[in-house]
Amino acid sequence: xxxxxxxxxxxxxxxxxxxxxxxxxxxxxxxxxxxxxxxxxxxxxxxxxxxxxxxxxxxxxxxxxxxxxxxxxxxxxxxxxxxxxxxxxxxxxxxxxxxxxxxxxxxxxxxxxxxxxxxxxxxxxxxxxxxxxxxxxxxxxxxxxxxxxxxxxxxxxxxxxxxxxxxxxxxxxxxxxxxxxxxxxxxxxxxxxxxxxxxxxxxxxxxxxxxxxxxxxxxxxxxxxxxxxxxxxxxxxxxxxxxxxxxxxxxxxxxxxxxxxxxxxxxxxxxxxxxxxxxxxxxxxxxxxxxxxxxxxxxxxxxxxxxxxxxxxxxxxxxxxxxxxxxxxxxxxxxxxxxxxxxx
Length: 344
Ligand code: FE
Fold this sequence. Notes:
Layout: E1 4-5, H1 7-19, H2 21-27, E2 29-35, H3 43-53, E3 55-61, H4 64-74, E4 82-85, H5 88-96, E5 100-101, H6 106-111, E6 124-136, E7 160-161, H7 168-181, H8 183-196, H9 205-213, E8 219-223, H10 224-232, H11 236-244, E9 245-248, E10 259-267, H12 273-283, H13 286-294, E11 299-300, H14 309-312, H15 324-329, H16 331-340
Helix pairs in contact: 7-8, 7-16, 10-11
The chain binds fe (iii) ion (FE).
């Protein structure tokens, strides 16, 4: 994969190049961003950063596992300045592999809540996504299911739709349950969920939502932004899906709903360190928070920044304050436990 400059930067650079190539080389400031976010709506985020800072953003976009492998094989010569991932498990894996470096930043420490950043400063969350339960309105009474623990209740036999245990969102969710309830209870829970599955796990989060609306099960587990995409869709079939379902924020009576994160950290061998620091601090500014979270129906990490209106419409909720590093580090144990429980 090659490094792709943003379209705007490419055009600007090409113009300057004709005028004075040597000056350009000496003056152009760049940031090499390795990102597993691949939302078209993030485009405005990069453009605005370049406009404010004069720093050109070169992007390498790929799956997180590929990016991590690439940074490992590149070693000290890696051009990566900043790594962005869409799950706590992956950013923490990068940190554990020594691919990141700590950044002590007053603006980040004051703007980003403590549970949404690595206690050692290796990464910071810039948006969150709640992993919630969707129920078929006509089949599940209001309040009949209110916790993740309820997903294992035998009364929901054959009704639960949830994706594979290989999915990192489920590993993080199970990692959070592990932190709350301990190994024995969490393994029993996983067995209960498997026993309640409407079908062997397949597809992504949106597939679980659609299957619940189609009557293949009554209860689906998904991240909020997938529902947000359907809620914003103009397609009648998507509107029909949204109409059929009710969003439940689990565990409002105790620890709160599990939230995962999209996070970023500075690469261990960053060559453009000042640009990397500027970029991370930029991501925590209110305007960047809007681009970062609003484009993909996520919740801004910085408190006081409003979520998008269709997200705000789901209502306020209590989120689990467990540090994302804790459930991220529980991922491996969570997967083993789900394997033992027969969760495909
Ligand atoms: Fe996702």
